[in-house]
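lol ok so funny story. i was supposed to be doing the assay writeup but got distracted and ended up predicting the structure for this chain instead. priorities right. anyway since i did it might as well share w the group, maybe its usefull for someone
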Amino acid sequence: MASQRPTEPGRPTRSPRAAAGTAVAAGDGPSSVTIDPSGRFAYVANSYSYNVSAFRINANTGALSLLGEAAAGIAPIS
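and the output, tada:
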């Protein structure tokens, strides 16, 4: 996953303050990403570790901070 700065909910753009393509650790086999309607949180379905990683999105920089992971059954997708 790469950090991006949202300009409005659901419409991210590359941030000049964060390096494009900055790697963020997620579970094994990240297969899909969704951003909540407020643009404050991102969720990653991890197919091989059978969980979903939750991240907070920094409104100023687009940086992602891992909040935690939740079990999601076999091969979750969104």
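Strands lie at 5-8, 11-13, 30-35, 41-46, 51-57, 64-71. The chain is about 0% helix and 45% strand.
back to the writeup now i swear
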